[in-house]
Amino acid sequence: MKQFLLKMWSHCVRLTTRWPSIASIVPFIPVVAAWWIVTELQIFPRAFLPGPAEVVRSFGALVYMGILPAYLQDSIVRLAVGAFWGVALGIPLGILVGLNQRARTALWPLLLFFQAIGDIAWLPILVIWFGYGLTTITVVIVYTVIFPVVLNTVLGVRSIPITLHRAAQSLGASRIRMLWEVVLPGALPNIVTGLRNGLGYGWRALIATEIIVGTSGIGFLMFDARRSGSVVEILLGMIILGILWYIVDSWILAPIERATGQRWGLVTR
Amino acid sequence: MGAGDAMKDLTIRNLSKTYFDPYAGTNVTAVHDVSLKVEQGEFVCIVGPSGCGKTTILNMIAGFIPHTGGEILVGGRPVKGPGPDRGVVFQSFALFPWRTVLENVAFGPKMRGIRKVEREKIAHEYLALAKLTEAAGRYPAELSGGMQQRVGVVRALANEPDVLLMDEPFASVDAQTRMTLQEELTRIWQEKRSTVIFITHDVPEAVFLANRVVALSKGRVLEEIAVDLPRPRSWDALNDDARFKELSGRVLQLVRSA
Q: What CATH number is given to the structural domain containing B100?
């Protein structure tokens, strides 16, 4: 038995060094296997816990009908639009608060106060103001993304050593150029962290918002499936959420981190 | 340097710095009535123990902190804040981690609006001066401390400042590397004839590098000692040199007795 396990392990190591992307799939194999075994043993009724095969079949059917691609696109576009505005407003605000003592005194308490009123806590009043539509969803996403981005940007700006400011000044950099040459790159590793947190929270807020006010999207798909009692589609929705986040993180955020903070030796690998 | 060039000298008259210590609730005088004249092309070391006010003096010359009394003139113009006429080399190197070695050295010329091709040519020249050509494309974090500080020195020089201010630049590298860096600095200085103010607590270092050593204690100038050792200087030659030992001994006695 021990021999067999060791052999499997060495196979595994050899395979993942040759194709690194496989390494990220390997941890899911026992999870899916356990799921499959539990459903095959019929511990729970099939209608409550369908197996992997049924979920894959449901995936095929929803893709074939065009529902899943359309919903997926809706969700991703909403997150992208919300994230764009969250970042476009959050980074300048964070730099202002980080650099300016007066702005910090004035805005910091407000930031902490409004951060505490969680994204979804705004939904009741937003629905009254903007109705069940894209505006409400966008506001919630922007609101969710902006706080981690602002707070981390402030942290990043304030963590830049004063000697770097001084070095740039005595090499002739003007205040405006300092922003681009010192403040922004110096804060970038923290900004990426803020973005990662913001997108994570935003993604969750999006699903919650779609469940409540949506007429399309992955969150809506899952809630609609509950109405018709389709556990398969609910499970499918959950799996898609996980996969999508994995893709965003490993294809977009991680490469940015590798190219900036890690390359510059500002964050440990 | 032609006769038409502006003088690249430094004049400090009755400089003082007093600040309020909120913890003690009193005014503290860190620098007391310091006067100093550094001629163009001179290498002056200010030496003294920790807390004697030497870094405060340098920060005031650099314009990083305001002075509370007296005046500082660089090339005849009073200092008001940091500026490219005074290049600074920091103890912590202060290289931009997101810029390659080449881009770090080209930073000053870039701020002056010099075109990319031109400023990279300048940067390459200075990198060659410090034997850093190989490292041009690397990031500071990939270099040893000694190499990082070489970059720090040529980055300041590449901007052709009137005065070069060095704040214990070799204090955070190992002893062997420090000796090499000291020798290289004297070589580069002889080539460029920059006006240099060098802050250190290391007496032999001060005597090795300087034309003139200013001994400082408790915010006051104790004495100025001219160093007439021949150049080029090397540690191999000076280690057993009687004159070097005599000068070092005198400065050390001054600094310790105060």
A: 3.40.50.300
Tally of structural domains, chain A: 2
Residue A45 lies in a domain: no
Label residues A156-165 b or e (16+ Cβ within 10 Å = b).
bbeebeebbb
- State the residue for tokens 């469940």: A211
Indicate the number of domains in chain B. Answer: 1
A265/B142 CB distance under 8 A: yes
Q: Does B169 touch chain A (CB under 8 A)?
A: no
The reply to whether B4 falls in a domain is no
Dihedral sign (CA B210, B212, B215, B216): negative
Phi first, then psi: what are they for B21, rounded to 5°? -95, 105
Report the C-alpha gap between B24 and A186 in whole angstroms: 35
Question: Taking the alpha carbons of B206, B208, B214, B216 in that order, is the dihedral positive or negative?
Answer: positive
Q: What is the ipTM of this complex?
A: 0.92
Sign of the Cα torsion A202, A203, A208, A212 reads positive
Q: Are A164 and B94 a contacting pair at CB < 8 A?
A: yes
Contact A264, B138 (CB under 8 A): no
d(CA A26, CA A241): 19
Q: How far apart are CA A247 and CA A14, in angstroms?
A: 24
Q: Dihedral, CA atoms, A123, A127, A132, A134, nearest 10 degrees?
A: -70
Strands (E), chain A: none
DSSP string over A185-244: HHHHHHHHHHHHHHHHHHHHHHHHHHHHH-SSSHHHHHHHHHHTT-HHHHHHHHHHHHHH
CA B197 distance to own-chain centroid: 4
Q: Is B113 on the interface with A (CB under 8 A)?
A: no
Question: Which pLDDT tens digit goes with each residue over A202-231?
Answer: 888 988 888 888 788 888 888 888 888 888
**Which tens digits make up the pLDDT trace of B95-118?**
999 999 999 999 999 999 999 999
Are the beta carbons of B164 and B196 closer than 8 angstroms?
A: yes
Inside any domain, residue A128: yes
Residue B41 burial by Cβ neighbours in a 10 Å radius (0-12, 13-18, 19+) = middle
Q: Do B98 and A186 touch (CB under 8 A)?
A: yes
Task: Say whether residue B119 is in contact with chain A using an 8 A CB cutoff.
Answer: no
Q: Give bridge partners of residue B217 from the DSSP assignment.
A: B220
Intra-chain end-to-end CA distance of chain A, in Å: 36
Tens of pLDDT along B191-202?
Answer: 888 999 999 999
- Provide the CB-side half-sphere exposure for A144 (13 A, CA): 32
